Each structure stands twice: as C-alpha cells, then as structure tokens.
Amino acid sequence: MVGTRALRVRSLLCAALLGMAMPVALPVAAAQSTAPAAAIPRVNLSHLDHLYAETMIGGERVGVVHIYSEAPDFRFAIEPREGFTCVDDVARAIVLLAAAPRPDARRLHRIDMLTRFVLRMQADNGYFHNFLWGDGRINREYRTSLAELNWWSLRALWGLEAALPHLPAATAARARTAADRLVMNLKRDLPTGANATTKVANIIVPTWLPLESGADAGSTALLGLLPHYRRTNDAATRALIERIGEGMLVMQAGDAQRFPHGAHLSWRNQWHAWGNAQAYALLRAGKLLDRRDFIASALREVDHFYPYLLRTGMRASFTLENMGDGFAARDAERFPQIAYGISPMILAATEAYRQTGQPRYRATAERLATWFTGANDAGRAIYDPASGRVLDGINGKGTVNPNSGAESTIEGLFALTALHGTPLP
User: Fold this and answer.
1) What is the pTM of this model?
2) What is the pLDDT of residue 3?
3) pLDDT tens digits, residue range 332-343?
4) Rounded to whole angstroms, how far apart are CA atoms 416 and 369?
5) Is the pLDDT score of 232 beyond 50?
6) In this predicted structure, which of 18-32, 79-93, 173-187 has the lowest mean pLDDT?
7) What is the spatial distance between Cα 302 and Cα 262, in angstroms, rounded to a whole number?
8) What's the DSSP call for residue 303?
9) pLDDT at 329 over 90
C-alpha cells in the first residue's frame, strides 16, 4: 500500500471510527513536568528536495511535490484514484519555504513554481481541484479532488497568502486575484450569518463552519484568512474570521478536571489528531484581532489536553458522548499516529510560548517533539535529521510505516521550524 495519509473526507473518517471501542479513563489532569527535553533536531530539507519536481500544466512549467515516497529506496508512487501530486501538499511546501525570514534564490524559485501549480488548479468556480495525474491532466472527478469548499481549497488560500511576499510581480498579481476570488466564495458559501446548532450524542455543535461543523477545516481556513485580512484590512474578512473562531469555541469540551480536558472537537462529536489545529489557529486569530476569548480557549487545550496525552499516551481519534455528569469517549483508537497529528499541537504550544513567554508552553512543545525522536509507542525515531525524512507514522505498538511522503515530511518540518523559533506565515 502507499503511505499513510490523513483522511480528507468525512465518509472515510466515519468508516475509520467503526473499529473496536477502547475505554478512555477520565483522570484529573496532573501538573506537567518541566524536565528539559532532548535537543531539538535540526531542520533538514533534503527529503523535501527529493520530493520536489517540475512539470507542465496547460503549457506552463510548474513545481510539484510527490505525495508518496516508499521505503526502502524512497521511490515515488501514485494513488490510482487520485494522482501523484496535490494542492494540499504543494500548499504545505509553500508555507514551509516561505517561513524562512530571508529565502535564498533557490527557495524563491520554488515558491514561485509551486505557486504556479496551485494557480493552475483553480477551477472556474473559484475553488481548487486537488490532484494531478502523471500526464499533466487535472483530476476533476474523484471526490478528494473536486473543486469545492473543502480542505484543499482552504489550504490553497494559506499557501497563496504565504507566498505573496516572495513572488515576482506577475505571479503575485495572479496569486492575489486567485486568493481574493476564493475568499469571496467563502464569504458567500459559509453560513456564518446564521446561529444554528445541532445536537450529536447530546453535545451541542455549530453548523456554520466548513463542512457544517468542521472545526478542524475551520482552523485551516483561519490560517489562510488571517494573512488575507492583514493584507486587505477587509471588514467582511475579519467578520468571517471571528465567526469561524466563535464556532470553534462551541466545539471545545471538558476542562482541567473533566475529560477531554479542553480539547476542541474536530467535526460533530468526533476528535481526531490529524489536522486538529484549532488551538493554534485561535491563538493566531486572538492575537491579530485582540480576541482574548480565542486565546483563553486555545490555552485551555494546551494547558490541560496536551499534558493528558503526554501522560497517558497519544491518541488517533475518539468520539465523545455527553453523559450529563461528564463526557465519555467511544470508538477510541490509539493508532495510526502521524506527524499531521503531532505538529498542530507543537505549533499551538510554541505559539502559546511566543505570546505569553511562559516556559511551561515551551516545555510542552519540547515534550511533544520527543514523539519524533523516539519517545513514542513504536520506540523508534520518526524523524531522521541526516536525511530529512519523516516516517509516515506509527501503525501499532512497536511498528511504523517506513515510507516518507510529502504530508508527513512537511508537517514534521513545520513542527521543527516552530521549535527552532521561526513562526509559520
């Protein structure tokens, strides 16, 4: 099989949550250890360089990153229903490369070429197709590549806005137009003017977020909307950011004493580690917009849920049920554990440290980072600083997925970049 990837559509997520139930204890959160973590490994882009390539779309030369890279020789693979590269991972690569304070000529060239790929994937409706076939055709039919309000379109916005300060004039003009058009779609298509909620397992969830209650997808939306607002100072964009953030607040459950200890649910009554960047996005939105409630909500998760995971072991997913006197976890899964599940927590903890200066947040980030260096259920280093490879995850106790695809590699490098003191754009 090709390397593990985070699930992109809700039907696949629901199927993954139908496995055997695993009871989750509901302990009182204990004080977090502040013991120093091991030295943070250096950021090595060598494997990302290996994944990078250039190709043609519609007569234009563009940059891509290969999605799958399979052990032992890390040759490339293609998913037969999807393709060999995608907007999701190319936009990630743009964000990573744009994080450098002063990108060198090589990085600037790649930011430009990768941005050209994203621009070529925008459909006539303003949203983005996700996957490209090996012969240069855009995959317009498969469900994870439809041009719609979904993860890949939202991540395209983050990538385009991150790229803008580093682009030559012609590409920058195209990127601004594409991003502005997409934001117009979001203002039109997200029902943020409504105040509707629904109940799932006796838990109140909002229905004005992406994918109705997608707080996880909403976090990706915020990461693109925030730089768009800084660039445009558009009042409607600010209102959209605030409304998405307010929906995320509704999705928070538990506190210091009660499970799930301030975690923000991902979608409906489900929590999954992959892409759960709500705390990180709320911290950034709270700082930019002076929304102290956003910051307080994010810090509640960092203060209580992350130490709970560090104390009891990482989780992949669970569903939550409100029992009246507390919450219970159902359908809990410990595996797979992937970089895309760890990096959002490290990003949130480093951002909390950046904003507050409190050493406990730096300590939390460093302890989370030991998952990459071997303090995990596999007992194996997931990141190799010599090659820059990040393994595609932990499949079970003592076992890893030895492949090293784009998502895992870039998400791992996101975390390390932040730990070395460089914020993402």
Assistant:
1) 0.92
2) 39
3) 999 999 999 999
4) 8
5) yes
6) 18-32
7) 8
8) I
9) yes
364, two tokens: 């939390």
**Residue 246 φ/ψ, nearest 5 degrees:** -65, -35
DSSP-based three-state secondary structure for 380: coil
